[in-house]
Amino acid sequence: MLVFRQLFDPQSSTYTYLLADAGTREAVLVDPVFEQARRDQALVAELGLRLLWTLETHVHADHVTAAWLHKQRLGSRIAVAAAAGAEGADRALLPGDRIGFGRRALEARATPGHTNGCLTYVMDDHAMAFTGDALLIRGCGRTDFQQGSAPVLFRSVHEQIFTLPDDCLIYPGHDYRGLTASSVGEERKFNPRLGGQILPQDFAGYMEHLGLAHPKQIDVAVPANLRCGRPGQAVRADQDWAPLTYTFSGIWEVQPDWLEEHLRDVEIVDVREPDEFDGALGHVPGARLVPLGSLVARAGELSKARPVVVVCRSGARSAQATVLLAKAGFDKVANLAGGMLRWRAGGYGVEGGSD
Ligand SMILES: N[C@@H](CCC(=O)N[C@@H](CS)C(=O)NCC(=O)O)C(=O)O
Ligand SMILES: [Fe+2]
């Protein structure tokens, strides 16, 4: 019996997969996301599982892996393709390697083309394949950066994935439209880039004209993933007074919907300038104005009894403010994710401001 959960990161539209042997409770996570580490650790604990491995399908360009974080907190080991050239992995996978958990195992198949270290993990009974970005649902990973190559990807998909049984389910690394799974038979027939009668040269033409912007996180994500997600700075102490997320840049964040329901339980500190506080965006009801430049000097005005939520226009200055407050001895402090811009876009209540 297999325990199987498909998990989603809405920021990057990434799927993470939890697989475990229902008998021995030994588990693996495929493509865990840094910001979702707490969620996934809670699930592993609630299901009574022991995480043996985190497995990467490739060096991601759009999010940072949680492999290193899980290793620190749960003692799991990190596996990534030898061809990915990442440092800090416990196992450098070669094509044909098997990763066992209890009585079950995944086989690593080399499916380069999106990157040269892409792996597809195939379940021992060929019922499921975790294709990363080699094959997406009615799509595939782009081939315009990170050693991408359309002819190489075409061969990978046709030789390593389309040769699996028709009813083998495909679980991709991402989906941008809300689809969750497909099957080999379905993609062989209906994939508009790689299925049907399409030839390698048709595919190459298609891929040359995708016209996609580079992932927003690429400059942070690729170097971080080449270190298996080990941050450059020390990890800040845990906090659990709200459903907080810890970002790869070392900032604790709280989401607007939580803050709106807990306005009276926290001290809200707005670190913008006075003209912004009273300007068009308005401010969060009950917020206290302490501009970033005077925050350290005025930190004594704030109580350490209540958690502090820091706010600015976009969430950048307030992120820095959380670092300054932590240094000043505040141990419950978080940034309002996305600042006033996201607060206003979400239609949450404001004091002052114009419509
Ligand atoms: N807008 C996204 C970019 C997403 C993206 O480029 N995704 C890659 C996977 S890492 C891809 O291959 N996408 C294929 C597609 O969208 O067709 C971001 O900023 O993160
Ligand atoms: Fe990717």
The portion of residues assigned to helices is: 10-25%
- Approximate shape: elongated
User: What letter string, H or E per element, gives the SSE order?
Assistant: EEEHEHEEEEEEHEEHHHEEHEHEHEHEH
Low-pLDDT ranges: none
Q: What molecules are bound to this protein? A: glutathione, fe (ii) ion
Q: How would a textbook summarize the main sheet?
A: 6 strands, mixed
Multimeric organization? single chain
Helix run count = 11
User: What is the spatial order of strands in the main beta sheet?
Assistant: 1-2-3-4-5-6
Total strand segments: 18
What is the percentage of strand-forming residues? 15-25%
Separation of the first and last Cα atoms: 56 Å
Q: Class by helix and strand content? A: alpha/beta
Radius of gyration: 23 Å
Query: Can you give the mean pLDDT?
Result: 96
Q: Could you explain the architecture of this structure?
A:
The structure is a single chain. It contains 11 helices and 18 strands. The chain starts with a strand and ends in a 10-residue tail after the last helix. β9 and β10 form a beta hairpin. The chain is an alpha/beta fold and about 350 residues long. The strands form 3 sheets. Strands 1-2-3-4-5-6 form a 6-stranded mixed beta sheet, with helices on one face. It has a 6-stranded mixed beta sheet with strand order 7-8-9-10-11-12. The relative contact order is 0.10. α3 packs across α5. The structure holds glutathione and fe (ii) ion. The site of glutathione has 14 residues, from loops.
